[in-house]
Amino acid sequence: MAKITEVTATRFRTISRMQSDSEGHGHPGPPSPSTMALLTVRDDEGDVGYHLTSPQYVTVEQVEGYVRPALMGKDPLARESLWRALWHQQRNSYGRLPDRTISAAEQALWDLTGRKLGLPVWRLLGGDRDRVPAYGSIMCGDERPGGLSTPDEYATFAEKLVAEGYRAVKLHTWMTPVSFAPNVAMDLKACAAVREAVGPDIALMLDSHHYYSRIEALELGRGVERLGFAWMEEPMNEYSMGSYRWLCDQLDLPVCGPESVAGGPQSRADWITAGACDILRIGVDSGPGIGPTLKAFHLAEAHGMDCELHGGGAGALAVLSVVSNTRWYERGLLHPDYDYDQPPPHLHSIVDPFEDGQVLLSHAPGLGVDLDLDYIVANRVPEPEAR
Amino acid sequence: MAKITEVTATRFRTISRMQSDSEGHGHPGPPSPSTMALLTVRDDEGDVGYHLTSPQYVTVEQVEGYVRPALMGKDPLARESLWRALWHQQRNSYGRLPDRTISAAEQALWDLTGRKLGLPVWRLLGGDRDRVPAYGSIMCGDERPGGLSTPDEYATFAEKLVAEGYRAVKLHTWMTPVSFAPNVAMDLKACAAVREAVGPDIALMLDSHHYYSRIEALELGRGVERLGFAWMEEPMNEYSMGSYRWLCDQLDLPVCGPESVAGGPQSRADWITAGACDILRIGVDSGPGIGPTLKAFHLAEAHGMDCELHGGGAGALAVLSVVSNTRWYERGLLHPDYDYDQPPPHLHSIVDPFEDGQVLLSHAPGLGVDLDLDYIVANRVPEPEAR
């Protein structure tokens, strides 16, 4: 039985073509320096697993304080108890051990296990789909002409996505700090323009401003219900499960959630019991991890319910290979001014290549993230001192 | 990617030291000829998986009609879609494709995968417990003096189990056709005698006659509640979920179920939502299979609930290695006149050796069932003609 001998996070400089607005929503930007981190878990048999993430989720405090103590000296295959050891510490971390940190550690263990056994993680899980249907997930709206600043610009971009092969498209509409957001009428104009442009046979979904009132959310829901949308996400703060039950009770339109709620599969069981969603939602980041994300799919399946994954990436694809109570992979975020298919300099190729409406899964052992380790080592930056 | 090239069921003669009464309950009997079956799944890379079962679950009709067509030519690692193909056929089989047939096929796939990758199935699943706490599960009562014919005989046997190292014991009390069964008062006398004999620190559980009325079930539940039992199982027909909700609403004693209900994790989600059980129950046989059994554990975990496995065996042990929302492995059934530790002639050793209150898991690749293949081949009997 192997033992974990190394748990390290390498910070490195790379180039990003995205920039964040004052509320953290991403928009296209000029290529500019950015910092990423690679979590590395190695064992005494020489096997290694990686997970690429933001440096804020593998800080010195998080790695030294939680991840390394939980993993060092342990069997790297003992994913369940290693995950649980971290999960149990989250409560007393008071925010210092976020879901994304736990997920990074768990995904690195999966990557190591797949590499050790010479199998892609999706095959280890018992999956057999090596291509999964994807929807084009459009970035939040903006105020840049020729970008996503008007309903017509959404319509033009959605038409382009359909021409590229997408059979499903999701809109993120305008969020603050956009000057005219939030605005139910504008959201509905964008949705109507997109429906008009792509016709009745393309599945459409909406993820809007997350702080509408119940009344606004119902108005928005009725509007996209009439437009034949496949679902709506998070029009209100997800801290109020009661508001979502109220909304679900009235709409035929499926409400998909929760995305942002803590507690992984457990809080999601409460949402199902409360009737606060029609389609369950979880992400491999908030699962946290591939294992708990699968548990949420199993929970939904037992209740006769679909689950739709929040966000993409190799972990998401591994899950989607094996589950059947789902429809799509979320590919994006996409924008007219952003070349999604161009890999960042630290990857040889992107993780989710697209063809004929589907994303192709890697057959490489592990999670199949095509890292340029030479680039990462060459661009390493020192870790900041622990506080 | 390997392809399945062989799916066969081998019927063979062996020796049983159990016999069934007129209602199918097992009791010790003299060694006598018996027929068992070995389901074999082989792939074009030369890997093989086995599952040992009763010939009634791998009949010519079941293997030729369902299992072989679903598996032949397929990737043996694609457990989820192979399982689902069988599961979807169950509805239209009108009883011809029982859970135990699907489970046999699924467990053979797990055994093959573990052997192919050189890992025990519990390690493939991410588990790390190689010993799990076990309760001694006492056989149904009988009318044989010196067996389990009186409350005192239960007490004497329970004391012996505790002396052997068990820290938990479950009684199956008297079922029809025993002349004085069903009888709530006798059940409670047996439970009280056992509690008196083993003292307050041994966990006790009860599985009684399954056709008591609501009123009788409540009387029985109140009785074992006063005796500090850990749970009660199936005192009533499990077709009535409403009866179980009625019972759960009144008892502090945990009610554990359902055991016999069809529908795997899905019906169990309904029991949880209805409040019809306090501890969930499923077996690898009724899961059906290791994968759906894990899904039921995930369902229970998401709802903050424990799940206790029905029945033992290698598949049960693989599940118990990885899950944490459970307490015990069910070891047995045990009886004063039955040597549980003696392997049948078709096994080199039993699957669940016991030591210090725990069962030890095999570290052999696959499910770790220690088959005597020479014996099985030498005692092969021809399959009956398909009807």
Describe this structure in words.
Two copies of one chain form a homodimer. Chain A is built from twelve helices and 14 strands. The first copy, chain A, has helices at 60-71, 79-93, 99-117, 121-124, 151-164, 184-198, 214-226, 241-250, 264-274, 290-302, 314-322, 373-378, and strands at 4-20, 26-43, 48-53, 131-138, 168-172, 203-207, 231-233, 255-257, 279-282, 307-309, 329-334, 354-355, 358-360, 380-381. In chain A, the strands form two sheets. In chain A, strands 4, 5, 6, 7, 8, 9, 10, 11, 12 and 13 form a ten-stranded mixed beta sheet that branches. Chain A has a four-stranded antiparallel beta sheet with strand order 3-2-1-14. In chain A, β8 (255-257), α9 (264-274) and β9 form a beta-alpha-beta unit. In chain A, α7 runs parallel beside α8 (241-250). Chain A starts with a strand and ends in a 6-residue tail after the last strand. Chain A binds chain B through residues 75, 77-81, 84, 117, 119, 123-128, 265-266, 268-269, 273, 291, 294-296, 298-299, 301-304, 322-324, and chain B through 75, 77-81, 84, 117, 119, 123-128, 265-266, 268-269, 273, 291, 294-296, 298-299, 301-304, 322-324.
